C-alpha cells in the first residue's frame, strides 16, 4: 500500500519544526534560554518600546491570541514585564533587564540565522522567504477558508461519475 503524499499543512508544520528545532538548538549552544517564537515580540518591543498586546499583534502581523500566549510565557521566563494600560483590559508589555542583556548575543544568533536562511534559499528553486511572503499576501487577499468553501462548492456542483 502506497503512503499518501503529505498535505500542505503537514509539510508546513514539518518545515517549521525543522527550522525551529535547529534555531532553538543554536540558542542553547550559545548559552541562551530562548524560544524562536519570542523573537518577533522582542524585535517589535525593540522597535516600538513598551507596547500593548494589540500594538504588538499589529506590528508583528500575527493574532492577538498568539502574541498574548507568547508574552505570557515570556513574562514567566522573566523576559518581559507587564503593567496595566489605559483601561483595565489592556496590558502594556516592556522588555525586562534580563531580555535587554540578552540582545547582543541574540543579534549574533539572528545574523547566523539570516545567513543560514540565505544559504537555504540559494539551494531552492525559488527563495523560501519570497514564497512565504507571497503566500501570506495571497491569503490576506483571500483567506484559505474562503478558498476551501469555493472548492467545496465547485466539487458539489460537479456531476457524479
Automatic annotation (TrEMBL):
Database matches in Gene3D superfamilies: Winged helix-like DNA-binding domain superfamily/Winged helix DNA-binding domain
What CDD domains would the database entry show?
HTH_ARSR (cd00090)
Protein name (database record): MarR family transcriptional regulator
Keyword match Kinase: no
Supply one GO BP term: response to stress
Which InterPro entries does the record associate with it? Answer: ArsR-like_HTH, HTH_MarR-typ, MarR/SlyA-like, WH-like_DNA-bd_sf, WH_DNA-bd_sf
Keyword Transcription regulation applies: yes
What are the UniProt keywords, alphabetically? DNA-binding, Transcription, Transcription regulation
Q: Which terms in the Gene Ontology molecular function aspect does this entry carry?
A: DNA binding; DNA-binding transcription factor activity
Q: Which Pfam families match?
A: MarR_2
Q: What is the lineage of its organism?
A: Bacteria, Pseudomonadati, Myxococcota, Myxococcia, Myxococcales
Which residues are in the HTH marR-type domain? Answer: 39-89
| SUPFAM superfamilies in the record | Winged helix' DNA-binding domain (SSF46785)
